[in-house]
Design brief:
single chain, alpha/beta, Rossmann fold, 2 domains, four-stranded parallel β-sheet, elongated
Length: 164
């Protein structure tokens, strides 16, 4: 957590207790969602595209990295535009981008879907596995007695969702 990494914790009074929540959206992806991505990777004529941090995350029985080692076409991309280019270059294959992240990654992925439609690229698909912070915060606050005075979200998420 950046609060600890950058020494901010030492600046706070000892009466403030900081608790880290669940980690990145990749780390909290449900096994069932990972299993879907892995199953798609095993289909013929399919290219799975994803960010590198998804490769080693285990599902119930495997991972995308293991699927790749077993012969599935799984490719790491650095942007969703890379995935779209792979779809353009491989019109005979279904190219599936594993959409992962917080609210912040959804707009660029949505734009890639629109671009694919505008350019007539009909072999580009997205498996959306995004995590939304407001429902998570609401679930925590709805649990009954929750003794906290505030929630600090990741900065990039806060910039997108605002303070309300």
């Amino acid at each position: 957590m950046a609060v600890f990494k950058h020494g901010i914790r030492q600046l706070l009074p000892q009466t403030i207790k900081m608790l880290s929540g669940p980690g990145c959206p990749v780390c909290v992806t449900a096994n069932s969602d990972l299993d879907k991505a892995i199953a798609l990777a095993h289909l013929p004529n399919v290219i799975i595209t994803t960010f590198g941090d998804m490769l080693r995350v285990p599902g119930s029985y495997s991972s995308l990295q293991l699927a790749k080692a077993e012969g599935s076409d799984v490719r790491v991309v650095y942007s969703v535009q890379d995935a779209l280019q792979i779809a353009k270059d491989n019109p005979d294959k279904s190219v599936i981008f594993i959409g992962i992240g917080f609210e912040t990654t959804a707009p660029t992925i949505a734009a890639s879907i629109r671009q694919a439609e505008e350019e007539g690229i009909d072999n580009y698909y997205v498996l959306p596995l995004h995590k939304l912070c407001p429902p998570i915060m609401k679930a925590i606050l709805d649990m009954g007695e929750v003794r906290l005075d505030g929630i600090i979200c990741p900065g990039h998420v806060s910039a997108i969702i605002g303070s309300h």
